[in-house]
Amino acid sequence: MKNRFKNILVLIIIACGFWYIIQYEGLRLKGIDFSLKGNKLELNQKDKLVNKNNINANTALVLVNSEYGLDKNYEPKDLTIPSISFASGVNEEERHVAGIIIKPLEELVSTAKAEGIILIGNSGYRSYKSQKNTYSSRVKSEGEKLADAYVAKPGFSEHQTGLCIDITNKDRYFVKGTKEADWLAKNCYRFGFIIRYPYGKKNITGIEYEPWHIRYVGKEAAKYIYDNKITLEEYLEK
Ligand SMILES: [Zn+2]
Predict the structure, then answer these.
(1) Which of 56, 57, 64, 171 counts the highest number of beta carbons within 10 A?
(2) Which residues are bridge partners to 165 per DSSP?
(3) Could you tell me which residues are beta bridge partners of residue 197?
(4) What's the half-sphere exposure (Cβ side, CA atoms, 13 Å) at 177?
(5) Do residues 221 and 143 share a domain?
(6) Structural domain tally of the chain?
(7) Whole-number pLDDT of residue 39
(8) 12 CA distance to ligand 1 centroid (A)?
(9) Cα(38) to centroid(ligand 1), Å
(10) Which domain holds residue 204?
(11) Are 73 and 161 within one domain?
C-alpha cells in the first residue's frame, strides 16, 4: 500500500514537471513570435523579431516558399504604389508593394534608366484572396496536379509579402540574354534585391528559374547572396 502511494506520488511529480516545461516553452514562443507561429508561419532563427506588430528591417528576411506559408490575414505594412511605370493591364492590387521596398525599388528603376535600361513593373503584391481565386480557377480548368505545378497554393506565394515584384521590359519578353534581364541580374543587389529563383536552383527554391522575380532582402543579405551565388534558403541556413 505504502509503495503504491509512493509510485503515484512520483508520477504526479513527473507530470507536474512536464506541465511546467510545456507551459514554459509556450511562453517562450509567445515572447518571440507567437502570433505568427499561431498562424502557421514558422520563422527562421534570423527572423524571430518579425511579427505583425513589430515590422522592422528583419521583415526583409522572412521566408515564404512551398514549405513556409503566410496566414490568410497577413498583409504587408504600408502597401503603396511605387513611382515606376507598370505594364498595361496590371491590376490595382498588383501595383502595390510593401512600404519598406518603395525607396529601393524606385532607386533601382531610376538608376537602370540612367544607365539606358527601361524596367517596367509587372506584378507586385498578391493578397491571399487573389491567390485563392487564381489557384481555384486553375484547379477548375486544369485539375489539381497541373495547378500545383504552376501556381502556388494560397498563402504560399512570396508575392503576399509585398517584398517582391516581377519586372518586365517594353517587349514583355524578359528572359536571360535581354539587356534588361542581364542588367537586373548584375545590379539588383546594389539596391537590396536578389533574383529569388536563380537558374539551376530549383531543387532548393522549389521554383524554376525566373529572371524577372526580384525579392527585397536588404543590402547586406543581397550582397552576400549575390557574391556567393546562393539562394535565400541557403542564406538563412548559413
Ligand atoms: Zn513573381
Answers:
(1) 64
(2) 214
(3) 210
(4) 2
(5) yes
(6) 2
(7) 35
(8) 55
(9) 27
(10) 49-237
(11) yes
- Please identify which of the residues 210, 220, 233, 234 carries the catalytic annotation: 210
**Is 210 labeled as catalytic in the residue annotation?**
yes
One domain for residues 4 and 66: no
Give me ligand 1 centre to Cα 175, in Å: 14
Question: Which tens digits make up the pLDDT trace of 92-109?
Answer: 999 999 999 999 999 999
> Residue 192 class from Cβ within 10 Å (0-12 exposed, 13-18 middle, 19+ buried)?
buried
CATH number of the domain within which 177 lies = 3.30.1380.10
Q: Tell me: the pLDDT tens digits for 167-224?
A: 999 999 999 999 999 999 999 999 999 999 999 999 999 999 999 999 999 999 999 9
Ligand 1 mean position, distance from CA 165 (Å):
6
Estimate the crossing angle of helix 179-187 against helix 99-114, to 10 degrees: 120
125/175 same-domain check: yes
- Residues 126-141: tens digit of each pLDDT: 999 999 999 999 999 9
Place of cell 521583415: 59
Domain co-membership, 18 together with 60: no
Residues 8 and 73 in one domain: no
